[in-house]
Design goal:
- With 409 residues, the chain is α/β, with parallel strands linked by helices.
- It folds into 3 domains: 101 residues, Helicase, Ruva Protein, domain 3, CATH 1.10.8.60; 166 residues, P-loop containing nucleotide triphosphate hydrolases (Rossmann fold, 3-Layer(aba) Sandwich); 118 residues, Winged helix-like DNA-binding domain superfamily/Winged helix DNA-binding domain (Arc Repressor Mutant, subunit A), CATH 1.10.10.10.
- It is 51% helix and 11% strand.
- The chain is built from 17 helices and 8 strands.
- The chain has a 5-stranded parallel β-sheet, sandwiched between helices. A 3-stranded antiparallel β-sheet has the order 6-8-7.
- Strand 3, helix 7 and strand 4 form a beta-alpha-beta unit.
- Helix 10 runs parallel beside helix 12.
- The C terminus is likely disordered.
């Protein structure tokens, strides 16, 4: 075990560890010139004082959505005579209409925000502040799908444009979910007047170049072997082209080298770091899931651990579950703890979103299985998944319900 004095010694491998953080915005963003230009084009009318169209940005985690927007925000700060005022809001933290409005007021009228007013008061203050000199407010809502009362927020922000004579509000929404607008009331959708921008995943060659660029400022010279960068890029590309995962693996590999007092980051550290980082990413994703998606995933994990109702669907390595038995387990589980299960339509949507996150895989049943159904396979060890989800859903170290009795297969 390393002592505190050992930990305070200068790193053997890192030069600027912050440069390897997913929150770090580099001087240039590789392979995102097209997307940056599209965002700037969408923002241009607002920056000149006109009401622009709202913009919604989609893409899987680690595709550079937030980095590109933050890069542009910093660029805008350096421009003279801008008619717009910007607010960047992390909706994982500011996850309600009131909190979002209060954050915007805090950014621009901090003394007013501290007075304990309600949402209506904040709305009225915001509209008068915008109208007083015909300014444009650009509200950047990162992870917009995390807002609990999203309909109310969208309606409130778009309503400002109807209630004022001059100035306006432009919304920039960022989400990992292409389908998040499906949850909105049709009346909210009709007020948006939005354009959309999808971020593609990174290829292995692109991830390699990104890592090479970050290594140049994050590590000391000649510390990371080139084959390590190729390996890490390939692993992250295989997991959906996630740049954050590649940086997490590289950072973890550097930490392992530091702990072992090595002067090189080798393939051994990279391979160990990959296993650690992949597990951490999975558990980070689980923590961010909405409650009922967690219940569906927990049902899949429980059934996988028990072998499912149809043992013949196991090939000795993986267990394949019928979609119907998963839905029945989900209904039993939620009902047993006095929660109303969602409909089958919502359940199918949850499965789709869990698959997009890389937590499960689904297949259409082929010949030899009566009828036509979807088969589901868990992508992580069932026991670990059960432990994590049990803690997420019920707290403590295990479930608070007798699963064998209340949740039959």
């Amino acid at each position: 075990m390393r002592s505190l004095s050992d930990l305070l010694v200068e790193s053997r491998v890192f030069l600027n560890r912050e440069a390897l953080s997913p929150h770090f915005t580099p001087a240039r963003l590789l392979y995102r010139e097209k997307e940056i230009n599209a965002i700037e084009t969408a923002l241009a009318p607002s920056l000149k004082g006109s009401r622009g169209r709202n913009l919604f940005i989609y893409g899987n985690p680690g595709t550079g959505k937030t980095s590109c927007v933050k890069y542009i925000v910093e660029e805008i700060k350096g421009l003279p005579n801008i008619r717009a005022r910007l607010s960047y809001i992390n909706c994982r933290i500011y996850n309600s209409r009131f909190r979002v409005l209060n954050k915007i007021i805090s950014d621009h009228l901090p003394t007013y925000a501290k007075r304990g007013y309600g949402a209506v008061d904040l709305y009225e203050k915001l509209t008068s502040w915008i109208e007083e000199d015909s300014k444009i407010l650009v509200a950047i809502l990162d992870e917009i799908d995390m807002v609990k009362d999203l309909d109310d927020l969208v309606y409130t922000l778009t309503r400002i444009n109807s209630d004022i004579r001059a100035g306006g509000v432009t919304i920039i929404g960022i989400s990992n979910k292409v389908t998040f607008k499906d949850d909105l009331d049709p009346r909210s959708i009709s007020t948006l007047n939005e354009t959309e921008l999808a971020f593609p995943h990174y290829y292995a060659t692109e991830l390699y170049a990104i890592l090479k660029d970050r290594v140049g400022i994050g590590f000391k010279k000649d510390i990371v072997e080139d084959e390590v960068l190729h390996y890490v890029a390939a692993m992250a590309a295989k997991e959906g082209g996630d740049a954050r995962l590649s940086l997490k693996i590289l950072t973890k590999a550097g930490e392992l080298a530091d702990e072992r007092e090595l002067v090189k980051v080798t393939m051994k550290e990279a391979q160990e770091a990959t296993k650690i980082a992949e597990n951490e990413i999975v558990y980070d994703v689980i923590a961010m899931l909405p409650e009922h998606q967690k219940f569906v995933l927990y049902s899949i994990a429980l059934l996988t651990q028990s072998g499912g109702s149809y043992k013949k669907l196991s090939d000795g390595i993986d267990t394949y579950l019928f979609s119907g038995e998963v839905y029945n387990r989900y209904k039993s589980l939620t009902t047993s703890i006095h929660k109303d299960p969602k409909s089958e339509r919502w359940y199918r949507k949850y499965l789709s979103e869990l698959e997009m996150q890389g937590l499960i895989q689904s297949f259409e049943s082929g010949k030899g299985i009566r009828g036509h159904t979807k088969l589901i396979k868990l992508c992580s060890p069932a026991k670990k998944m059960c432990d994590v989800l049990s803690k997420e859903l019920f707290g403590g170290g295990g479930t608070e319900i007798p699963l064998q009795q209340t949740v039959p297969g």
